[in-house]
Amino acid sequence: MVVVLGADVHKRTHTVVAVDVVGAKAGERTVAATDAGHAALLRWARRSFADSERVWAVEDCRHLTARLERCLLAAGERVVRVPPKLMPGVRRSARTPGKSDPIDALAVARAALREPDLPVAAHDVVSRELKLLVDHRESLVADRTRKVNRFRWHLHELDPERDPSPSALNRAVVRDQLAGWLAGQPGLVAELAAGLLASIGVLTGRINELERRISARVQEVSPRLLEVPGCGPLTAAKIVGETAGAARFRSEACFAMTAGVAPIPVWSGNTAGRVRLSRGGNRQLNAALHRIAVTQVRLGGPGRAYYDKRRTAGDTSTEAYRALKRRLARTIYTTLKTPRQAATESSMPSAA
After folding, report:
1. How far is the C-alpha of 273 from the C-alpha of 271, rounded, in Å?
2. Closest CA to 263 of 307, 318, 332, 334
3. Inter-axis angle of helices 172-183 and 188-221, nearest 10
4. Can you list the alpha helix ranges (DSSP code H) found in 55-171?
5. Given this model, what pLDDT does residue 343 score?
6. What confidence score (pLDDT) does residue 143 get?
7. Under CATH, which architecture does the 2-114 domain have?
8. Alpha-carbon distances of 170 from 148, 203, 234, 345, rounded to whole Å
9. What is the pLDDT of residues 196-208, one digit of tens each?
10. Residue spans of alpha helices (H) in the chain
11. Burial bucket for residue 266 (CB in 10 Å: 0-12, 13-18, 19+)
């Protein structure tokens, strides 16, 4: 007998509802979102359903479910991830009115019953490490951008003719020149500007250090991805981190759907063949593919040839980019799926 345990996860508590193979409720438990709570949840499940095959279903929001998933996987349990887009339909089909944690957990469990091919959760230390590094770097870049903007306004107030570009402040020689000039300026504005300039220097050093670390790690774990034209180390790290293991996708079409680059038809009658922008999927993964596509079109080669072919066939520039991104999704998926030991034995396609 199979028992599906659907989990509704929150920052402080997790609520789990168990259902049998026909979706009937078989049990319920709420625990604290701590290691002790996870251990208590496991004891309850093993005691209550000792003679059943247990499948844990969690909604795919890994900022909340990561610790629970790691605990369950370490204990040898089977965990599947339920895409959030499935949940509204399941809730509407239920006869239970209202909304609560048990109702949501029951919906997660029933969604897992209806969809037999959900991605299975697995430990992926590499992708998690790269995602943490890339996200931290992007946060530091955002902090630096805010400080640069404030610094330039202070500088404009002191001397409108001194107007370095934002990218120029990434260079130590420019910062040193400005620091020397500010040291001779009186007043509070100059003092605040000098403090901001020092903070910009510190942030730039940390950002550059992270970029070197990310580049070295990507070269180690996914060198073939760097051979795709237009895919630099930061873009490659973003792809690996957001993909979270290519093996969890049944096919490259599923990967393209997750990346938001699968075509969505919008034609009728004489407008056959038209597709529209997909607003679903992982927008970070979509943005990474877009950067590769733009770079390939700018640099020339097979990517540019395919773009020109689509334009000649009547596609708009936006539609041609959309088609190129779909081809890139296929290339990226194949690259990620190829074992590292096979990478040295096969040649990498030059572009999409």
Report:
1. 6
2. 318
3. 170
4. 62-74, 87-93, 101-114, 125-158
5. 42
6. 97
7. 2-Layer Sandwich (3.30)
8. 10, 10, 18, 41
9. 999 999 999 999 9
10. 35-48, 62-74, 87-93, 101-114, 125-158, 172-183, 188-221, 233-243, 252-259, 283-299, 302-312, 317-337, 340-343
11. exposed
Domain boundaries, the chain: 2-114, 125-221, 224-343
pLDDT attached to residue 189: 95
Element (H, E) at 4: strand 2-9
HEC-encoded secondary structure of 147-177:
HHHHHHHHHHHHCCCCCCCHHHHHCHHHHHH
Specify the pLDDT at position 114: 85
What is the maximum span of the chain, computed from C-alpha positions, in angstroms?
79
Return all residues near 48 (Cβ < 8 A) that are at least 6 apart.
18, 27
Separation between Cα atoms, residue 298 and residue 304, nearest integer Å: 7
What the block records as the tokens of 131 is 């995602």
Q: How far is CA 83 from CA 25, 76, 244, in A?
A: 21, 22, 14
**Residue 131 CB contacts under 8 Å (≥ 6 apart), including other chains:** 241, 242, 244
pLDDT value of position 344? 39
**Taking a C-beta distance cutoff of 8 angstroms, is the pair 78, 54 a contact?**
yes
Q: Can you read off the two tokens belonging to residue 257? A: 């759907």
Burial class (CB in 10 A: 0-12, 13-18, 19+), 339: exposed
Phi, psi of 262 (to 5 degrees): -70, 135
Range 230-255 burial, b when 16+ CB lie within 10 A, else e: bbbbbbbbbbbbbbbbbebbeebeeb
